[in-house]
Amino acid sequence: MTMYQQHFGLTAEPFSIAPDPHFLYHSERHQEALAHLVQGLQGSGGFILLTGEVGTGKTTVSRALLEQLPESTEIAFILNPMLNEDELLATLCDEWGIRYQKGRATRKVLTDKISQFLLDAHQQDRQCVVLIDEAQHLKPQVLEQLRLLTNLETTKNKLLRVILIGQPELQTLLKRQELRQLAQRITARYHLLPLTNYDTERYIAYRCQMAGANRALFTQPAAMTAHKLTGGVPRLLNLLCDRALLVAYADGQMQVDKAHVKRASQELGQFDEPQQRAQTASRWPWLLLPIAAVIIAALMRWWSVPEIQVEEPISNYDYQNAQLLATAWQLPQPPRQQAFCDWVKNYQLACLKTNAVSVSQLQQINYPALLLRDAQTGIVLKSMEPVDTQGWTGEVIGLYQRPDIRYQDGATESEALTQWVKEQLARYLSDTQQRLNAQAQLQAIQRQAGLPITGELNQVTLAWLSARYFESGPRLQEVN
């Protein structure tokens, strides 16, 4: 037991970076991720996909999944994805206790032994699951070998389920042409995003409670400062909060305050940059006045939002989705021979297309949206109630009302849009936040709104600002 554990009355380290399911805080996003994995295992598909940035809790979610699996599950857990095809087959045999002659077993021999194991397990009502962490490092040939193993099936179910867990690069890998057959077999997928500011406060309190705390060890300003410095990434929160407890202990204090968190961030070093950027942003007009015109021009280009165009002409699959969206927005029948995103401009609307938001974030925007499914039309998000996301690919298409921008004399569309966005941000940001640079302002509003924190004026953020600006237009509760 560490000295600060005794000082705060703790029985364990509350912010260990080890993926202990006992400390898993079930935020809305983590609950959704775990539900997608469980639902995928109950379905009839072969592959389940969980992605997320470094430190967002993917491995912890996977450990929680393992604890929920019945004892009848035969699980093969692969932590080292840097394997070739033969090494993969041998590793699966080792994980499942399949005996073979090392050094003599050919790929066919290993494949046959695994196939027989899967058949025997099925006859005994045992489910076989392969879970691969850091799957973005898998070679395409190894992924193809996994697909071939999942070919073994009954009339209703696959005999092998594969859970791929990795960073966002895994999604890019699976879009390769030679892996298109595997991509078509992914029946459940989820992209795990960082915690919102609301969940960060509860995450910190929960982990302290699970470690034995019987009172709040962090003040609310301290928790919000930790969220701001880490962006809500659990792994970074653990590092920062652990050091903050040590700083408070060294000061002889029984609660961590905002100053302790800031001092902890300075000691760790890696959290200093956002604060330095903010300080620099508040001073730049005086320090860089001679080149202000150049900076403003660069900001104008940076704030611009590119339009996402639907391929022309619209395919049958895209046209069905266009019809669903048009109906939700009470628009007439869209034309087949015109790009949908061009056509909706006639109604002062713009397209939103993304694969980086959750259902709850879409509900924050509060416009009708379409959750795309594999090989079929999408699911219309109709209300603030839970929605069946079975088969959802993670991709979303939607519409939002175009900003009501007013042109000053000689202003371009980009300059007018920039001015409109600044005016909208001013409605929600404090005077101090408004002195930050453009990226920091956008990060601040994205945190407040519970949107993906990118620091960019993307379409998700623009749609949220639009929904707050306009009082007309359909809302989720109005869509039938």
From TrEMBL:
Domain of life from the UniProt record: Bacteria
InterPro entries per UniProt: AAA+_ATPase, AAA_22, ExeA_AAA_ATPase_DNA-bind, P-loop_NTPase
Protein name per its UniProtKB record: General secretion pathway protein, ATPase
Gene3D superfamilies: Cysteine proteinases, P-loop containing nucleotide triphosphate hydrolases
Annotated ranges, domain AAA+ ATPase: 44-199
Pfam families: AAA_22
SUPFAM superfamilies reported for this sequence: P-loop containing nucleoside triphosphate hydrolases
